[in-house]
Amino acid sequence: MFSGFCKLSKSYFPLLNATAKKNSINVVRQSSKFTPGQSIRLQKIKEKEPGEVIKWMLLVIPVGSFGLGCWQAYRLQWKLELIDRMQATTNSSPVDIPHDFHELDNMEYKPVKVRGEFLHDKEFLIGPRSLVENESLPRVGSFVSDPKKNQGWLVVTPFKLSDTGEVILVNRGWIHQGLRSKERRQASMINGEVELTGVVRLTETRSPFMPKNNPVKGSWFYRDLHQMSAYLGCAPVWIDARGNPEPPEGWPLPNQTRVNLRNEHMSYLITWYLLSAFTAVMWHRYFIKKLPLV
């Protein structure tokens, strides 16, 4: 038995020694790869990596806001040119209204000439609306400076064309609240054939907070041409009448075409550029000069 144990020990210990040597070699190899100095340097690099990522991520804010400012500058120039084109179209020479009313879809703000007669019995008011002052047609002694008198209504009267018999809608102009009653505007309700010039307007989209039209009650708040034409039995065509900016007493004030577009690109431009400048200064102070932000 003792001799068997000796044989087993002779065969086991060399194997154990070999394993120990192998393990020691592995330990030496592993330790040869990572010296204490190298390990410390790697830890410092790993500690710096998150800061570097955040540094370049935060740079996106000033760069991105500067790009948005440039985009708003482009949009501002585009909007101003669009408004100029609309003004030029409105001030162009009038043409005869086309027989095909579908052509009017591409003629908004274009002046047209019409001949026919008003159908005053189907007149209605839309509003309340504020008075539009035309700078090219100033009104002497205007009461528009008084905000209490600046609220009124647009007088919309169906107009039967002489050549085709079609009925369109004509915005004759603005009246203040004291002239809502027809009896006080009898002098303005001219009969017979007349010729007038007006500016083509397309249908109007209801704003979120504006009440809905109620034709049965005669409440019209916005220019929905399809609803108006269906209720009155006329064509979905609307023109804003042009005329004397100083009409006789009791007449609607014409030239009520509001040529404007929402243009807030300048405020957006300033906001984005200020944000870009502020964040760029903060980024340079903190990451480049290594100074505290406050």
TrEMBL record:
The keyword Mitochondrion applies. It is found in: Membrane; Mitochondrion inner membrane. Pfam families: SURF1 (PF02104). The keyword Transmembrane helix applies. Keywords: Membrane, Mitochondrion, Mitochondrion inner membrane, Transmembrane, Transmembrane helix. InterPro entries: Surf1/Shy1, Surf1/Surf4. The chain crosses the membrane at residues 268-288. One of its GO terms (biological process) is mitochondrial respiratory chain complex IV assembly. It is a multi-pass membrane protein. Its main location: membrane. It comes from the Eukaryota. Probably involved in the biogenesis of the COX complex. Belongs to the SURF1 family. This is SURF1-like protein. The lineage of its organism: Eukaryota, Metazoa, Ecdysozoa, Arthropoda, Hexapoda.
